[in-house]
Amino acid sequence: MEQNSLYDRPDLYDLMAPPDVMLERFYVGIAREGGGRVLDLACGSGRLTIPLAQAGLEVLGGDLSSAMLERARNHARASAVEAGFVQLDMRNFDLGERTFDTIIVAMNSVLHLHGLDDFKGFFGSVGRHLSPNGRLVFDAFLPNIALLNADPDKRELIGTVVHDGLGAIKVEETARYDPLTQIRHVDWYWSSESEKDFWQVPLRMRSIFPQEMPLLIASGGLRLIERFGDFDRSPLVAGSMRQVCVCGPTPMT
């Protein structure tokens, strides 16, 4: 059984991240409101970079995974759109004097940040690359106590997908939550019809509770401007599944 990063296999990753019209509409809409220059951090295979470029925005996609960036470039060429791509670590990046009107981190990617140093480095790097009225926009799952307390030895089916070469694939997960670090330790198990557990993928995802979110944002010199409970811009309430955050520079006093 091979153990690796999910982001080493863009062909499998894309199967678990199908198109989401509401997500695309939200991020494209808010980027249009902000202006023309967009940085799509943790862009992956171009899931949002390409729709942003198709909307006429000047967009740069950044990701740590070279495999994901290669797939994103191929998707951009196939879609005949103008988009730039750069390899970077969102915990600490420097694009020189370039600034952006909107910086996006979509699809829970901010939960790959674990400790305070990660968050300070991320929000600080973002702040250095925002235009004076620029906005950082990201989404993160609202922690679900029932999921955090799940049996760590029990496998749960999270999806069945079809791969062009491997056929039908079943994806299961086990999960263990560490309340001290607030990290959910997840393992995904991939099985085809011919081989059970042909691939295992560890995922370490931070839980960020609503009251601590503004404090983490402030740790890097930004401020939370508004927060929604979903991509339709509905209010954040107890039953919301996610926190959709809009942040900006802290005003000078």
What does this structure look like?
- Helices cover about 25% and strands about 35% of the residues.
- The protein is α/β, with parallel strands linked by helices and about 250 residues long.
- The chain has 2 domains: about 1-140 and about 210-250, Rossmann fold; about 145-205.
- The strands form 2 sheets. Strands 4-3-2-5-6-12-11 form a 7-stranded mixed β-sheet, with helices on both faces.
- Strand 3, helix 4 and strand 4 (about 85) form a beta-alpha-beta unit.
- Helix 5 packs across helix 7.
- The mean pLDDT is about 95.
For this entry, give a set of tags:
253 residues; alpha/beta; Rossmann fold; seven-stranded mixed beta sheet; globular
What's the CATH C level of the largest domain? Alpha Beta
CATH superfamily of the largest domain: Vaccinia Virus protein VP39
Provide the low-confidence segments as ranges. none
The portion of residues assigned to helices is 25-40%
What's the average pLDDT? Answer: 94
Q: Rg, please?
A: 18 Å
The biggest beta sheet, please? 7 strands, mixed
Q: Into which percentage range does the β-strand content fall?
A: 25-35%
Instruction: Work out the count of structural domains.
Output: 2
Can you count the helices? 7
Determine the structural class based on helices, strands and strand pairing: alpha/beta
Under the CATH scheme, the architecture of the largest domain is: 3-Layer(aba) Sandwich
Main β-sheet, spatial strand arrangement: 4-3-2-5-6-12-11
CATH topology of the largest domain: Rossmann fold
Helix/strand order = EHHEHEHEEHEHEEEEHEE
Molecular shape = globular
Head-to-tail CA distance between termini: 57 Å
Number of strands: 12
